[in-house]
Design goal:
Layout: H1 3-14, H2 18-37, E1 42-44, E2 48-55, E3 58-61, E4 68-71, E5 74-81, H3 83-91
Antiparallel strand pairs: 1-2, 2-5, 3-4
Helix pairs in contact: 1-2
Length: about 90
């Protein structure tokens, strides 16, 4: 499912116009992104949680030249699946 499909599903399920559903989805994602920028943890019970993880820098190798290079540290969003969602997905066997 992509963002436009999510908007369509929300509009249909909640009997909203596509424009209103788009505003809701955009507001949700914007608020979640802003919270992560502020290094806040986001928890959606039964679904999962998001947080920012810091990864230290390391020495890597340029694959073209073989030279050793310094790779700087970085911060990335991390998602941890919730128990309910994990069990729901696991129950659905192919």
């Amino acid at each position: 499912m992509n963002k436009s499909q999510l908007i369509e599903a929300l509009a249909k399920q909640e009997n909203l116009t596509l424009k209103k559903a788009e505003l809701v989805v955009n507001a949700l994602f914007e608020n979640m992104a802003e919270a992560l920028v502020r290094k806040e943890r986001i928890e959606i019970r039964g679904f999962g949680s998001f947080k920012v993880k810091h990864y230290n820098g390391y020495k890597g190798r340029n694959p073209k030249t073989g030279d050793i290079i310094e790779v700087g540290g970085k911060k990335l969003p991390f998602f941890k699946v919730g128990k309910d969602l994990r069990e729901m997905v696991d129950r659905e066997k192919e």
